[in-house]
Recover the amino acids of this structure.
């Protein structure tokens, strides 16, 4: 391995959450009310005592009025061409998994690709997700179960799934091994930021 090779950037979600909350002058209690989470749960996340689920990250992003990729780090300038070396991906850890950005947070177009790495039993959390545009899923390794509305799809290595993202959906790794999936979000409304999806909690 080349000694000059850089390690991928790993984002501390708790630190980023505190930065985003304080930058918007939102109190812990205020964020708890807006997100539907307890102040104690938020405190645990900010202090790095627990990792949030993906659905929790969505709820926090929605409550703070920021895109989910705000947890990737600071504000990024947008470019028409984005090249990301494999060792320079931004990684956001969450409960039992890792979310790796593939340049969508820097791209000026209406597309956002990323990779999910999921431990056995990992899931997007207890709540469904909805957002604008379309969602494409390609299973790179292991097994991945997607629920779209009332239908269930079990993806194995090489399988793919494409659906309208305003449909309620969630996912989990039902297998006994780690799963990897390439996910591509696209088709945002004209004028939207490329990663400014409208994630909302669905009861």
């Amino acid at each position: 391995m080349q000694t000059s090779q850089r390690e991928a950037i790993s984002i501390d979600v708790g630190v980023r959450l505190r930065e985003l909350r304080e930058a918007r002058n939102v109190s812990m209690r205020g964020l708890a009310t807006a997100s539907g989470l307890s102040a104690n749960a938020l405190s645990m996340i900010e202090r790095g005592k627990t990792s949030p689920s993906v659905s929790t990250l969505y709820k926090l992003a929605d409550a703070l009025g920021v895109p989910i990729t705000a947890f990737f780090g600071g504000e990024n300038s947008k470019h028409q061409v984005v090249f990301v070396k494999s060792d320079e991906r931004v990684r956001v850890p969450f409960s039992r998994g890792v979310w790796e950005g593939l340049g969508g947070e820097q791209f000026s177009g209406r597309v956002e690709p990323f990779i999910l790495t999921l431990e056995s039993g990992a899931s997007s959390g207890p709540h469904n997700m909805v957002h604008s545009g379309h969602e494409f899923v390609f299973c790179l390794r292991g097994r991945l179960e997607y629920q779209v509305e009332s239908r269930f799809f079990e993806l194995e290595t090489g399988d793919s799934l494409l659906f309208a993202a305003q449909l309620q959906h969630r996912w989990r790794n039902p297998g006994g091994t780690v799963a990897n999936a390439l996910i591509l979000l696209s088709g945002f409304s004209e004028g939207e930021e490329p990663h400014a999806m409208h994630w909302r909690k669905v009861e």
Observations:
- DSSP finds four helices and ten strands in the chain.
